[in-house]
Design goal:
Elements: E1 2-4, H1 12-22, E2 29-32, H2 37-45, E3 50-53, H3 58-78, H4 93-104, E4 110-113, H5 120-130, E5 138-142, H6 148-156, H7 173-176, E6 181-185, H8 192-204, E7 206-207, E8 216-217, E9 221-226, H9 230-235, H10 241-247, E10 250-253, H11 264-279, E11 285-286, H12 288-296, H13 302-316, E12 321-322, H14 352-370, H15 375-382, H16 386-396, H17 401-404
Parallel strand pairs: 1-2, 2-3, 4-9, 4-10, 5-6, 6-9, 11-12
Antiparallel strand pairs: 7-8
The structure holds adenosine-5'-triphosphate and magnesium ion (MG).
The site of magnesium ion has 3 residues, from helix 5.
Amino acid sequence: MITDVRLPDISGLELLAIVRDKYPWLPVIVITGYATIDSTIKAMRLGAVDYIPKPFTRDSVMASLEQALHSGLAAVRKTDSPFSEIIHGGGSMTGVIELIDKVSRSEATVLITGESGTGKELVARAIHRQGSRARQPFVTVNSGALPEGLLESELFGHTRGAYTGAVTSSLGRFRIADGGTLFLDEVGNMSTAMQVKLLRVIQEQEFSPVGSLDLVKVDVRLITATNLDLEQAVYRSEFREDLYYRLNVIEIHIPPLRERREDIMPLAGHFLARIAETTGKKPLTLSAGAVAAMQEYPWPGNVRELQNAMERASVLSDGGEITESDLPVRMSGSALPTPQTPILPSADGFSLPGMLRDIERQQITEALRRSGWVRSRAAELLGMKRTTLLARMNSLGITDPSQEEG
Ligand SMILES: Nc1ncnc2c1ncn2[C@@H]1O[C@H](COP(=O)(O)OP(=O)(O)OP(=O)(O)O)[C@@H](O)[C@H]1O
Ligand SMILES: [Mg+2]
């Protein structure tokens, strides 16, 4: 990308920041007639490969382009983000891949569901990459991470002075994604007011930026994702039914890793190979004990947790092999007490309440481990209500180990 610094809607440096974030492999050259040391430094810090002050000669641009393309190609080999494949072991994920192929040939709105870390964003990118919009932008917005006011201007943009602190105007992600795909992550966490606004854009393909009465038309393919049960949310009137049907024209459900164990080893091999690429060493292998522990473990954090575990183990392991002791403790089944373990007197001697708390803690921890830290499932196992379980976990200080790391 070659960009000027002074642009009508946003600054070239802002654009550079967005591009670095979304298309890390794309080399950017910044051109400006207002060359100052400050903005040069800023552009370089933001990752521009070169900076050309105006006026420039044809030769200086050619030289700069050559260098940029060179660095770009090197980056393509290194980064995986837009070209990464979906690794699997031939089980239920083949159905998901087939569905991706089908929907990428259409323009249909897709809802991707699945637990955290199952690969929803990866699938969204694959749909975009295989479709007719592949050469257009793929823009992501995490709807759950932003407060309502910010989300609105993030999506639809704002005019200068639209609110306190809006010193420049902003395009908004919908306009940046024009012609391409907008991936709205965690759509289930959107406020009711935002749901109404989103529905309107889907129906009319137009909207007004914050602080403006102008209507802006866009051509955007929408892909959304959620780790919540949206149907339940509709039932509880937390999510608009009309919006749900608009978003869920086609649903792609990605099963949790514990329900597709055939993917564990291919994924582990893939991550170890990638780690080896960055370190320049031979990929580490896994000991039989490590393989057994990984096959057994419920992977509540799914593929992301597996990736973290491989990264961590690569650091800890000495020698060419990852053993069970290089994996997080929670993965070795024997490290956690089973319900059959004799109960030892609690810290406060033989006090019955203390002992009961110990039993309760062990039983709850084990049930959570067996159900992959899915609270509702553990509650079922324990024969208690989910809300009761949450209260007990809170009181006993039991937390999901996968949420503490990584
Ligand atoms: N099948 C797969 N093959 C290769 N890498 C994968 C696969 N599934 C997931 N990953 C990797 O695991 C990580 C988590 O995936 P991703 O961010 O797509 O998950 P997510 O479902 O969007 O999670 P969250 O709900 O937390 O946002 C990413 O680094 C992704 O590249
Ligand atoms: Mg995600």
